[in-house]
Amino acid sequence: MRTRGMHLIVCTALVTVATLATGSISPAEADTLTTLAPTGGLATITRTAGPAAPAQIRRAAGRLDHRAVPPVPGRAAYLFDATSGTVHLSKQAAKRMPVASLTKVMTAYVVLREATLSDTVTVKAEDVKHASANGATHAGLRSGERLTVRDLLYGVMLPSGADASHALARVYGPGNARFVAKMNLAARSLGLADTRYANPDGLPKPSPGYSTARDQAKLADIALRDPTLRIIASAGRHAVTKTRSHRAHTWTNSNKLLGKAPGALGLKTGYTNAAGYCLSFAADRDGHRLIGVILGESNADRRFQTATRLLDWASEQTTIDDIDL
């Protein structure tokens, strides 16, 4: 927690840095000013010795200033502070493109408005076949298993199971076409003007649909306000104990930010040949929720590395902006 005393220290340091950099006072006068603050910490950057002081201060000022945005190799990206509304990064953020399994965020959002978490869904052969025939990621479901909606949502969000999303869409459309219509209705009601869904999983057949980095970031913000969806998306692992109704299942989250990036909340990974590697991510840092999307990355692991750097960078910008001057 910042105290008013710390604000005074930072303020004194910054004012002195700015004044020296412009040359409006002498180094000796600067040393007198910094005696208002204790030694050590930020205040010590203004302590000077001799005529070289202005250059030293300019270097210190640079360390306090906003650093350049990290490189983002993906085709599109968007990063904003959902708490303050500040947009930190926008790269081709309004360009329509396929978003692969980020589609499943909307699938989960719609299911949570149509179903009760304790509802039981029976997996059918067509659900399993849908995932296997399309070479899609799956939750390892078998025909005849009966699982709760809650567990199937974990199967959708963690291993990105196309079998689980197909089963839920089949029941809560009912049927794929009606469920997709509900997805698109929700997109319009949420103001996602550049988004059109063609299926519940983002697979290329019959069509992948499209969205934008900006729309997906907006959807992530909305989705994370739902406590159930936030808990599911941020879980690193989910185990389903064997019962008479179903086998045992253990699903690991495909989002490598969880447990590594401070404050990470999820949200969803995705990949198809057309969409490239995609990532919708978020983290809570110092009272701010940072939300970002990367689309069209060519390297699977690099999307997580980029997201980590972006979160760290945006967090630093937020910290600087929060200093009371």
Largest sheet: 5 strands, antiparallel
Full CATH superfamily name of the largest domain: DD-peptidase/beta-lactamase superfamily
* Number of self-contained structural domains: 2
Radius of gyration: 25 Å
Strand residue content: 15-25%
Q: Helix share of residues?
A: 40-55%
CATH class annotation of the largest domain = Alpha Beta
Global shape: globular
CATH architecture field of the largest domain: 3-Layer(aba) Sandwich
Number of strands: 9
Mean pLDDT: 84
What is the H/E order? HHHEEHEHEHHHHHEEEEEH
Distance between the termini: 17 Å
CATH topology of the largest domain: Beta-lactamase
Number of helices, counting only DSSP H or I runs of 4 residues or more: 11
Strand order in space, largest sheet: 2-1-9-8-7
GO molecular function: serine-type D-Ala-D-Ala carboxypeptidase activity
Enzyme class: hydrolase
Domain Peptidase S11 D-alanyl-D-alanine carboxypeptidase A N-terminal: 72-298
Family: Belongs to the peptidase S11 family.
